Amino acid sequence: MSRLLGVLLALVCACAFPTLAAADGLHITNLQVEGGEESWHSDNAFALSWDQVPAPPTYPQAVLYRLYDSEGNLVAGPVRNTQAVLAIDLLEVPPTPGAYTVEAWLEDEEGRWGPPAYATLRFDDVPPSSPGLDAPDPGHVRVRSGQPVTGVRQGEHAMQPGHGQAYLRPAQIRPEMPC
Q1: What backbone torsions phi and psi does residue 83 show, to the nearest 5 degrees?
Q2: Residue 113 and residue 80: Cα distance in Å, rounded?
Q3: Where on the phi/psi map is residue 153: left (φ > 0), alpha (ψ -120 to 50), or beta?
Q4: pTM (2 decimals)?
Q5: Which residues on neighbouring strands pair with residue 142, listed in sequence order?
Q6: Mind listing the pLDDT tens digit of every residue in the chain (179 residues)?
Q7: In degrees rounded to 5, what are phi and psi of residue 44?
Q8: By three-state DSSP, how is residue 15 classified?
Q9: Taken in order 22, 118, 97, 125, is the CA torsion positive or negative?
Q10: Is there a single domain that holds both residue 80 and residue 167?
Q11: Which residue range forms the structural domain that includes residue 148?
Q12: What CATH number should be reported for the domain holding residue 75?
């Protein structure tokens, strides 16, 4: 008798609290932003991929998402896509530079929603100001741009001592590197 009451109580809770029922549904893990979540992107179009639990052959009926600005204000959504349900190939953020947050979740064949997953979409299409060069010592070059170092980690710089042949030297770019 107590087992029957326990089963009935579980069914009542599942009907009364759909979020508890959705815990058994499909959900997104390892949400990835193409090009990296920590990287700033110069294009406002993003692609997202993820792992699904449980994995196929069970497929979602839809993928849903919302987009928020850096202040947490809703920018778009919820968007419900029933065509491409294994990834989001094109998610455009507004043409205003900033860090946006996408909240994505899956809907199973019974219409139950899984828990949301989150990723940061960093968009900045404004090129940095032109840097100024200062080379008091031929072995060291200091670049002043007035912009924080974001994304560029290494490069090359050309050296042309006197009137000789120019050659490229590898360089690591670090903020406030002493010369």
Answers
A1: -90, -60
A2: 12
A3: alpha
A4: 0.61
A5: 134
A6: 444 334 333 433 433 333 333 446 899 999 999 999 999 999 999 999 999 999 888 899 999 999 999 999 999 999 999 998 999 999 999 999 999 999 999 999 999 999 999 999 999 998 776 555 555 555 555 555 555 555 555 555 555 555 555 555 566 555 554 44
A7: -85, 10
A8: helix
A9: negative
A10: no
A11: 132-172
A12: 2.60.40.10
Place of tokens 């893990």: 29
In-domain check, residue 1? no
| Spatial CA neighbour of 150 closest among 127, 177, 132 | 127
Element (H, E) at 142: strand 140-144
Instruction: Write the DSSP assignment of 72-116 as a string of letters.
Output: S-EEEEEEEESS--SEEEEEEPPSS-EEEEEEEEEE-TTS-B---
Residue with tokens 């507004």: 94
Number of independent structural domains in the chain:
2
Q: Which two tokens stand for residue 143?
A: 């670049």
Element at 21 (helix H, strand E):
helix 18-22
